[in-house]
Amino acid sequence: MQMVEEYKDNDKIGAQFLPWVVCFSASLFFFYEFIQGNMFASIADDIMQDFHIQADKMAYLSSIYYVANMVFLFIAGMVLDRFSTKKTILVAMLLCVVSTFILAQSQSFYLALACRFITGIGSAFCFLGPIRLASRWFPPQRMALVTGSIITLAMTGGMIAQYPLTKLVAQVGWRDALMEVAWLGTAILVFMYFGIVDKLKNSTHYKVVQKNNLLSTAKKIYLNPQTLRAALYTSLMNMAIAVYGAMMGSLYLVQKMGISKEDAAVVNSMLFLGAIIGGPLIGWCSDKLGVRVLPMKVGVLASLVTMLAVLLVPVSLPIMKILFFLLGFFTAAQIISYALVAESSSPAVTATAVSVVSILTQGGYVVYQNLFSLLLVKHGGVQIIKGIPVYSLGDYQYAALIFPFGLIIALLALLGLKETHCRQIEE
Predict the structure, then answer these.
(1) Would you say 39 and 169 are in contact if contact means Cβ atoms under 8 Å apart?
(2) Which 3 state secondary structure label does DSSP give 150?
(3) ∠ at Cα 196 (185, 142), nearest 5°?
(4) Are 116 and 64 in contact (CB under 8 A)?
(5) Helix H or strand E segment including 261
(6) In this structure, how many other beta carbons lie within 10 angstroms of the beta carbon of residue 334?
């Protein structure tokens, strides 16, 4: 009898940990894609030198990943709502790994573009997959914490794409470094295969999805003002990661502070460290308080103040590290909008609804990176030093005006947003 009770207790413990194991395994895909999406901050000058291009073409190579991501997000949510989440994201991860192996060997700029595009297709599933699994394994009251944890793991990948990857590139070159990234992806793919478990769909929800007309479902989700406002907020709050974290942060800091590329990468990585800590903490606070909109407002106001300090106040290297950390921490309030959108939508179409947020966020990468690069190139002259284009601090400061304006728009997007109080809407 005692053995039976012990078995039941162990079974309960296993049942408690299984959702976290499943979501962690799936989130490793998101972790890997954040390395993919942000690694150009570490290899931008090497890429420009190797392919003989300037910042505008560099932006094309970086942002085409997000173009593919944005385009395929329109169908990714619906695919995940209808088919096996495990099989879908395993195929998507395989695409990313294979294209990375090819990119590391490519000698043509256009082949490199194609590889980045294919990687972007696969990455369309890297966040929606874990969120789809989380919505099935966890109750709505824990979604902000779970979402924050998923994004925290992703931000760890973004952090690895900064200083560690910069050091690796310095030692072995960017091509061999990408080969290492590809082999890491292979190991993650194997782990995902064993760690992800599909949870059976609720039969009622499944019938709703099957009966819903694809066009009517898309219209209902993609034209929902609540969803669109939350998605715009998230996209704009992610602007610093999109430009500084993913592409130009290290080069900007080298010009602004006269520091080495390695030191600049350390400062840039503070963005991700701040998000790593801020994501789950802010999500936990939102769940605990039972509100979504208020912490989103606090986050954007604090982000605006911090961004203005980064751009306008002359500071030392240690203070700049703190400012970048705070910027990452406060902008992590964006994670709440995923929970808000999931709660504002029918459980049958969670992935489709959350895909709207992802579409605007990834579309923001395309817009912000190219807008920043356009302003950078057009503002002044460029010097070519050892085959690498070098822009002045004035050019960078001029291009960086998009950050405070974007955060102001993000604040305006929250006006009139309906509070969900951490409760799922009824069918």
Answers:
(1) no
(2) helix
(3) 110
(4) yes
(5) helix 261-289
(6) 28
Per the structure, the complete domain to which residue 184 belongs is given by: 20-196+220-413
Cα–Cα distance measured from residue 192 to residue 210, given in angstroms and rounded to the nearest whole number: 28
Q: What is the CATH number of the domain that holds 62?
A: 1.20.1250.20
Counted domains in the chain: 1
Return the sign of the alpha-carbon dihedral for residues 413, 419, 424, 426. negative
In this prediction, residue 133 carries a pLDDT of 87
Taking 50 as the pLDDT cut, the residues of the chain under it are 1-10, 203-211, 427
**Residue 35 is assigned to a structural domain of this protein:** yes
Q: What is the pTM of this model?
A: 0.75
Domain-located, residue 372 = yes
Residues 167-189: tens digit of each pLDDT: 999 899 999 999 999 999 999 99
H-helix or E-strand containing 330?
helix 317-331
pLDDT at 4: 37
DSSP summary character for residue 358: H
pLDDT given for residue 388 in this prediction: 65
422 is a domain residue: no
Question: Cα separation of 109 and 83, whole Å?
Answer: 36
In a domain? residue 403: yes
Secondary structure tally for the chain: helices H, strands E: 21, 2
Tokens representing 169 are 């590139």
What pLDDT does 414 receive?
Answer: 93
- What pLDDT is recorded for position 6? 42
